[in-house]
Amino acid sequence: MKAAYMFGAGDVRIQDVADPTIQNPTDAIVRTVRACICGSDLHPYHSMDNDEHGVPMGHELIGIVEETGSQVTTVSKGDFVIAPFSFSDNTCSFCRDGFHTACKHGGFYGSPETGGLQAELSRIPLADGSLVKVPGLSENDTDLFPSLLTLSDVYLTGYHAAHMGHVQAGKTVTVIGDGAVGLSAVLAAKQLGAEQIILMGRHTSRTDLGREFGATDVVAERGEEGVAKVLELTGGEGSHVVLEAVGHMPAYEQSYGVVRTGGVISRVGVPQYEEAPVGFGSLFGKNITLTGGPAPVRVYIEQNIPLVLEGTINPGKVFDRTVTLDDAPAGYAAMDAREALKVLLIV
Amino acid sequence: MKAAYMFGAGDVRIQDVADPTIQNPTDAIVRTVRACICGSDLHPYHSMDNDEHGVPMGHELIGIVEETGSQVTTVSKGDFVIAPFSFSDNTCSFCRDGFHTACKHGGFYGSPETGGLQAELSRIPLADGSLVKVPGLSENDTDLFPSLLTLSDVYLTGYHAAHMGHVQAGKTVTVIGDGAVGLSAVLAAKQLGAEQIILMGRHTSRTDLGREFGATDVVAERGEEGVAKVLELTGGEGSHVVLEAVGHMPAYEQSYGVVRTGGVISRVGVPQYEEAPVGFGSLFGKNITLTGGPAPVRVYIEQNIPLVLEGTINPGKVFDRTVTLDDAPAGYAAMDAREALKVLLIV
User: Where is the Alcohol dehydrogenase-like C-terminal domain (chains A, B) (predicted)?
Assistant: First the structure.
């Protein structure tokens, strides 16, 4: 089968590799229908050391179950499924708490053992916990594929930010970052009833989609100027909730600059720093709550499938380019050059 | 009147100063019945530079209203009142959110303008918002005074930690610190229904009171050893909620060491640091929430008065020494030497 591998910074290739096989009775093999490239795939694309074996790429897919191990009971051959970006048993105490990314028996794709999901076929461990069936869907419902695929990661990562930030009716929400996760966070905030949604971003084509998703205001300025603008838009009081979808220190600093006393900063941009201000002058003095982390998207998938199927939400609009798996290397290059927001892969 | 002033590290004196007077029509003058010394008063006691004018001390009192300004409507001469440690209008948007310590028109005691509350008489600004009447109480109900006084700061600071940490039935709570705030946090966690309450502290006389307040386990070890002990007590999974009542970096590090995936660290110990770990390896990777700040005790007072009057809670047990205002300097010395946990002042 074909699969995308990265061999070093800027070097993605489609390889012919052996088909995956059932290794544990809880595995399933899934034939990919759509996969995609994640903003997080760009981190190694910038900095990876050369590796002659290559690293299997991708962690988002929708597809059709090809084969199941003997202990798999919730999905069977022919089912249309969504695979969350991490696998999990959905039964351990952390999964029961709703934090599947910390599943005691789960893990992440992209290792030699699990492979990546930018591939024609994938082995999904703990299939009963990891795969979510989309009932009644066929391979002809192509219009629905992009939005269903976002339930594998990007939309529900934005949703996780909004959920952890306790976004609710009447709240003012500021979203930092106009990437695909930031725009997803806008849509999620709208879904959860936010009254005012301020999107901080400076790429007009992206912030336009943000407005379509529900942003009431766009602030292109950054740093102190951006903070001043958000304060102005919130009567000088700041934003009840800040959804931080970038992960760099300036975005963190902007977050505590715009958040209201007693408010929440919810991060889903993976922090590219370990230490940050949390003392009296930043978080403590104003009773600010800092929350967020890797999104346990598994817990949010079921409730969002009907919204996609009914057309209530259309988070798949974050895909602004579609290529075949063979052209995935060009897709990486386009996202890296910011010519594409997020690239869909037809497999 | 007599009032406590600090003139430098270790130098507290009782001074004869002019009686406070009504300066704004929203002021009230209160005659102190009981005041006390706070753990936070020990910070300047350790480090204050000499000041020939001295700084007025204290921010906790219960007392009797002596006089009110022309615009004061909710309290009048003769009322028995509790004064929260900060004054606030109780009407601005931040007060309505429940964050009175950030009141737009409020502030803190201990400046030359406001004076301190370790004094025979005090001027309370914004009396309608700041003072809470205790109906039916007289100066003879001395047994109730210690617990009522804790509603001015210490008990409700512990309560704020538990409230912000979303302590509820069935949760495991770890309290870091066996000072008066930590013990108050134990009592608050018990009140909010925590199932298991682990108190980290190593002063037996204090942790004994912690057990009386509801601690189910006491961990005397610190650092890695202490973390290992708490993990052992929680089936290896960690504590749903950590209430951090110390404010030093080792307590912060202990907090993220013992907190469960998806759990909450709630801080009320004023951080003696500005930067701290918050990245993937500390908070983000495990979806940890960090919350807390200066306690807006005003918002919690009314609901707790009946519990004190009925004897449901007795947070005043944190006072293990009582002296007169004249002997306040000895009270400071006793707390500083850890001979006393918290000192009550009869005024």
Answer: 180-292
